[in-house]
Amino acid sequence: MTHQTECQRCGTCCENGGPALHSQDLPLIEKGDLSFGNLITIRKGELAHDPATDSIEPVKTELLKITGKKGSWSCIFYDKSRNGCTIYDHRPLACGVLKCWDTDEILKLAGKDLLSRLDIVKEDNPLRKQLIEHEQLFPLPDLKAISRTISRSSKKTIKKLERINNKEIAYRMGAIDRFNLSVAEELFYFGRPLFQLLTPLGFTARETASGIKLGFK
Ligand code: SF4
Ligand code: SF4
């Protein structure tokens, strides 16, 4: 068996998901190589793979990730037909550092100097105030604890989550209308709605005239 020593350009890492942005990537935003609509916010408390422990844990600090395409995490900039990155010369730091055959360097970078929304949404952008308020009004519940207890969750707990979810959706709908946000911009400014974070844990979410109804499978 031969040891891999260089990138085979197979695209597996790009298909597994775009990178998180680090402070060194700030010029990509400032020069317009990446727009807010290219990014999805992973809010503090969302569950994600922690490469250091190889387990699913709540993220300790917010991070911005290159968004995926068609409901998957496959990086929007990955062109499968050409097995290549369409922004290769302007790709984020983590993409250049990633070597799937030797993960030392990427593990050293993981979780350090991460960019957050407040690093890139300028003071004169009215949505800055809005996203700060959103974070104060709707901090994420403890998703890890919820994932452990879902099968034993009482109707009262589910109703409480449902109320939070529907209030949060009403808030984001107000901002979408007021600022005419695209879906991509919404996911940057506010992250994913709670029900989308609950369904991978085993919850069901059904749209009704009075809002999203939560249950579990
Ligand atoms: S780093 Fe590894 S997974 Fe990514 S494209 Fe290269 S060979 Fe494929
Ligand atoms: S930005 Fe380019 S190199 Fe980085 S994950 Fe996306 S397609 Fe791959």
Features:
217 residues; 2 domains; two-stranded antiparallel ribbon; 8 strands; 38% helix
Detailed description of the structure:
The chain has 217 residues and is an alpha+beta fold. It folds into 2 domains: 1-120, no CATH class; 122-217, no CATH class. It is 38% helix and 15% strand. The protein has 10 helices and 8 strands. The strands form 4 sheets. A two-stranded antiparallel ribbon has the order 1-4. The protein has a two-stranded antiparallel ribbon with strand order 2-3. The chain has a two-stranded antiparallel sheet with strand order 5-6. Helix 6 packs antiparallel against helix 8 (155-179). The longest helix has 25 residues, at 155-179. The radius of gyration is 19 Å and the shape is globular. It binds iron/sulfur cluster (2 copies). Residues 7-13, 98-100 line the site of one iron/sulfur cluster (SF4).
Radius of gyration: 19 Å
Return the string of H and E elements: HHEEEEEEHHHHHHHHEE
Shape: globular
Strand content: 5-15%
Regions with pLDDT < 50 over 5+ consecutive residues? none
Structural class: alpha+beta
Instruction: Summarize model confidence as the mean pLDDT.
Output: 93
Q: Percent range for helical residues?
A: 25-40%
Biggest sheet, strands in spatial order? 1-4
Number of domains: 2
**How many strands, what sense, and barrel or not for the largest sheet?**
2 strands, antiparallel
Ligand inventory reads: iron/sulfur cluster
Distance between the termini: 45 Å
Number of strands: 8
Determine the number of helices (DSSP H or I, runs of at least 4 residues): 10
